Amino acid sequence: MLTNEEVAQDIIRKYENAVSEFDDPFGLLTFTTNRETIISLLEYLRDHAAFRINFLTDITAIHYPDSPDREYCVVYHAHSLVQNFRVRIKVYLTEADLHIPTATSLYACANWMERETFDLFGVIFDGHPNLRRILNMDEMDYFPMRKEYPLEDSTRQDKIDALFGR
Amino acid sequence: MTTEELDLANKAGVPARTDEGPVQYVNELTTLNLGPTHPATHGIFQNILQMDGEKIVSGEQTIGYIHRAFEKIAERRPFYQITTLTDRMNYCSSPINNMGWHMTVEKLLGIEVPKRAQYIRVIMMELARIADHLVCNGILGVDTGALTGFVYLFEEREKIYEIYEEMCGARLTTNMGRIGGMERDLSAEAIRKIKKFLAEFPKVLREFESLLNRNRIFMDRIVGVGGISAERALSYGFTGPNLRAAGVDYDVRVMNPYSSYEDFEFDIPVGQSGDTFDRYMVRNEEIWQSLRIIEQAINNLPEGSHFADAPQYYLPPKQEVYKNMEALIYHFKIVMGEIDAPVGEVYHAVEGGNGELGFYLISDGGRAPYRLHFRRPCFIYYQAYPEMCKGATLSDAIVIMSSMNVIAGELDA
């Protein structure tokens, strides 16, 4: 049975300054890396003889408009089906430079996950074979999951946030 | 035959003679739209297939026809209102989605749910799994031309829906349970219905199996069709019955047990080749395993409360609200969304009808999630469809899609 500590130490030994902010909310090892390292890190974890974190569970993004230079966070969830060990890797991006390399060369399933993230947040995955919108229509000119796009029609006068406890 | 000659023959659409043997027909590629509204897609999504005669050369899917932006809507809703959104993802097994969401929130809030509520959840989730697999396997029969089994099974699915009705009043989009437990206890009527179902259903399922399992026509249509290797299936992010059909025994219920699944004894059926027949058989066997789980749960149902002692988050029973001041206050606060959740980041996965259904929830301490992402198994494994039906015929493509059990609601969210 792998422990968070064990995996974290190994990753720190290998990547030193490229990884940081280790945490384990609800027991799930979480840490941050940068976009230069992410693909090599995923590959390292996948091919590691002991960890074998070889299943990409999910890719998604989060928008933090209020934190300068870390406006976007791309989150990878990976899972070792052999060791039953999950890991969450975060990469923060700035609003001005929303580029991150694609993971499609490592995992076939990353294709649509990245397309969805691009569709909803506008994160550009460099090297992706077919980076088009997937859920929304192609003509759409904004990225709906960004916080600046309101859910409700802003022209309506009758929906006052205070009345709805918001 | 040179390329130019082949091109010429292609253009003319005439039979061309090759050096090795008899006449070969060389056709231009045909583009075929399978969907968006096609009876065989069982939902709204499009497949653009390039066909060489009857053979599929390549394909591309277009999805998003019923995208309802659940993740965006969820950012403005109090936690208890998001349950209704999860209903509408995999609408063939809504209770699993509902309870997966409740468990995610409970994990964030740190609520320990009583054993009895956990067992009731297991019973309802397994009934939902049976209903889900019945639809998939029944429809696979229809797509190969056997309508009888499907109609026969739908009668049984109806009985499961009657049990849902007893538990929550709804049938398809169930909104079952609450954060912190179940909305109501198992009534005597519900227990009677479940026991009746357990007694009568095996006979029907055996009959269904005898109609299809070793049926020559059925087997000819699905054995060896749409196979995928375990390695490719893992790379494509397969989970659930589709992955198990390829030979990987990954089941969230066993690997990361939730809601007391560790108390029950059941097997994980696995296939070998990952073809349509294996997927069919795995689902069939899972129905039997689900029956085993329900039987164990209903026979060992613990005494106690059906909800946790968490008045701040558990919507109080209506009778209490009318008589009890505290209950009225909490009812008001919960409904108006005045109760803040703690700050936190949770990933919780349950074994949905189609595989690992994950909820990634980020709370910033407000009344609604800061960000909620659904890991929808359909969305992830449906990518593999063109690879799986490459080189197959159109009729194979239909049964492959059918056996993957792509649910449009879950695909698009």
UniProtKB/TrEMBL annotation, chain A:
Q: What Gene3D superfamilies does the entry give?
A: NADH:ubiquinone oxidoreductase, 30kDa subunit
What GO cellular component entries does it have?
plasma membrane
* Membrane topology listed for this record: Peripheral membrane protein
Matching entries from PROSITE patterns are given as: COMPLEX1_30K
Alphabetically ordered keywords of this record:
Cell membrane, Membrane, NAD, Quinone, Translocase, Transport
Q: Which InterPro entries match?
A: NADH_DH_suC, NADH_quin_OxRdtase_su_C/D-like, NADH_UbQ_OxRdtase_30kDa_su, NADH_UbQ_OxRdtase_CS
NADH:ubiquinone oxidoreductase 30kDa subunit domain residues:
32-153
**What reaction is this protein's catalytic activity?**
a quinone + NADH + 5 H(+)(in) = a quinol + NAD(+) + 4 H(+)(out)
What EC number(s) does this enzyme carry?
7.1.1.-
The keyword Translocase appears for this protein: yes
Question: What residue ranges are annotated as transmembrane?
Answer: none
Q: Where is this protein found?
A: Cell membrane
Query: What's the short name of a Pfam family annotated to this entry?
Result: Complex1_30kDa
Q: Answer whether the UniProt record assigns the keyword Transmembrane to this protein.
A: no
GO molecular function term, any single one: NADH dehydrogenase (quinone) (non-electrogenic) activity
The annotated subunit structure for this chain is: NDH-1 is composed of 14 different subunits. Subunits NuoB, C, D, E, F, and G constitute the peripheral sector of the complex.
The entry assigns this protein to a family as follows: Belongs to the complex I 30 kDa subunit family.
Please describe what this protein does: NDH-1 shuttles electrons from NADH, via FMN and iron-sulfur (Fe-S) centers, to quinones in the respiratory chain. The immediate electron acceptor for the enzyme in this species is believed to be a menaquinone. Couples the redox reaction to proton translocation (for every two electrons transferred, four hydrogen ions are translocated across the cytoplasmic membrane), and thus conserves the redox energy in a proton gradient.
Q: Which PANTHER family match?
A: NADH DEHYDROGENASE [UBIQUINONE] IRON-SULFUR PROTEIN 3, MITOCHONDRIAL (PTHR10884:SF14), NADH DEHYDROGENASE UBIQUINONE IRON-SULFUR PROTEIN 3 (PTHR10884)
- What protein name applies here? NADH-quinone oxidoreductase subunit C
State the organism named in the record.
Answer: Arsenicibacter rosenii
Q: Which gene encodes it?
A: nuoC
TrEMBL record, chain B:
Where does this protein chiefly localize? Answer: membrane
How is the protein disposed in the membrane?
Peripheral membrane protein
Q: Output the superkingdom of the source species.
A: Bacteria
User: What PROSITE patterns does its record include?
Assistant: COMPLEX1_49K
Subcellular localization: Cell membrane
Which of the seven top EC classes does this enzyme belong to?
translocase
EC annotation from Swiss-Prot or TrEMBL: 7.1.1.-
Q: Which UniProt keywords apply?
A: Cell membrane, Membrane, NAD, Quinone, Translocase, Transport
Q: List, alphabetically, the GO terms of the cellular component aspect.
A: plasma membrane
Gene Ontology molecular function terms on file: NAD binding; NADH dehydrogenase (quinone) (non-electrogenic) activity; quinone binding
Positions of the NADH-quinone oxidoreductase subunit D domain: 143-412
Record has NAD as a keyword: yes
What is catalyzed by this enzyme?
a quinone + NADH + 5 H(+)(in) = a quinol + NAD(+) + 4 H(+)(out)
What family does the Swiss-Prot or TrEMBL record give for this protein? Belongs to the complex I 49 kDa subunit family.
Outline the subunit composition.
Answer: NDH-1 is composed of 14 different subunits. Subunits NuoB, C, D, E, F, and G constitute the peripheral sector of the complex.
What does this gene product do?
Answer: NDH-1 shuttles electrons from NADH, via FMN and iron-sulfur (Fe-S) centers, to quinones in the respiratory chain. The immediate electron acceptor for the enzyme in this species is believed to be ubiquinone. Couples the redox reaction to proton translocation (for every two electrons transferred, four hydrogen ions are translocated across the cytoplasmic membrane), and thus conserves the redox energy in a proton gradient.
User: Would you tell me the protein name for this molecule?
Assistant: NADH-quinone oxidoreductase subunit D
Q: Which species is this UniProt entry from?
A: Arsenicibacter rosenii
Upper lineage ranks? Bacteria, Pseudomonadati, Bacteroidota, Cytophagia, Cytophagales
